[in-house]
Design goal:
Elements (H helix, E strand, L loop, with lengths): L2 H15 L4 H13 L3 E4 L6 H11 L4 E5 L6 H5 E6 L4 E6 L6 E5 L6 H13 L1 E4 L2 E4 L5 E6 L12 H4 L4 E4 L5 H17 L10 H12 L5 H15 L6 H6 E3 L3 H17 L7 H12 L4 E2 L1 H5 L4 H11 L5
Parallel strand pairs: 1-8, 1-9, 2-5, 5-8
Antiparallel strand pairs: 3-4, 6-7, 10-11
Amino acid sequence: MSLQTTFGELRSQLAQRIIGQETLVERLLIALLADGHLLVEGAPGLAKTTAIKALADHLEGDFHRIQFTPDLLPSDVTGSEIYRPETGQFDFQKGPIFHNLVLADEINRAPAKVQSALLEAMGERQISVGMRTFPLDQLFLVMATQNPIEQEGTYPLPEAQLDRFLMHVLIDYPSAEAERAILHLARNDYRQGQPPAAVKVTASQVFEARNAVSEVFMAEAVEEYLLALVLASRDPGRLDPELGRWTAFGASPRGTIALDRCARSLAWLDGRDYVTPDDVRNVAFDVLRHRLLLTFEAEAEGMTPDTVIQRLLERVPVTA
């Protein structure tokens, strides 16, 4: 069985467990293939936790959930040194960040020090405690969640820290048909328990798949289109005076890299060995929405980053 077929089956299996959230399932797999991290925003009860737990069931790796609260300390995430009286020495006790899949639940409820500790681990793939540095596992994915309903007493992530996330995914309520299917699945699980994962993917298969994704062909015209989108976000006034009035800062070079990796991963997941402009457009919202900073004027007019991205997609021509 080919790797593409294996990941295609994994995608189908996850979609059967996470009903009505096909985009979340797809973005989780893209993050896994692109070696990045995911920020997911949605109301409570939309299967955010269930999604990453289901992925963990299908992966050869361990999973840990961290509930972020205002009284959380950085050492609660990274671990700390503990004094051992019997030896007279300090031993490092690893924290929950030393797992393959980590769910940072309601990341905006913890203060900046805790957020920084997590984001350093995401960016550097290591933890520094005192004079020592501890590397994290090569297979390491963080899915952080935010609740858009309750914002009182929260600590919103600064734009520079948001840039650490490969994608910022917004999810909504499922359709009526999907809701019925969720109800039937929940009844069945309550009666018979959750069935074991039919598809298991090893860490070596994930790394092999990442190599395959990096070799997916991107024509020069598609690359030019990708670059044009990012560059237009930095100087949008050339395309459209209103865009220039709405946008304070555009996407960073990290956004360019993320757009490239996500478009390649999506193409590979869809069973192709080449990237199309539609792949770039498909992932553009999730890759760019947290990397654009709007002006006060735009916010006062009720504009959102998605409004700007939609206008960019309409204005930037696909290179022939």
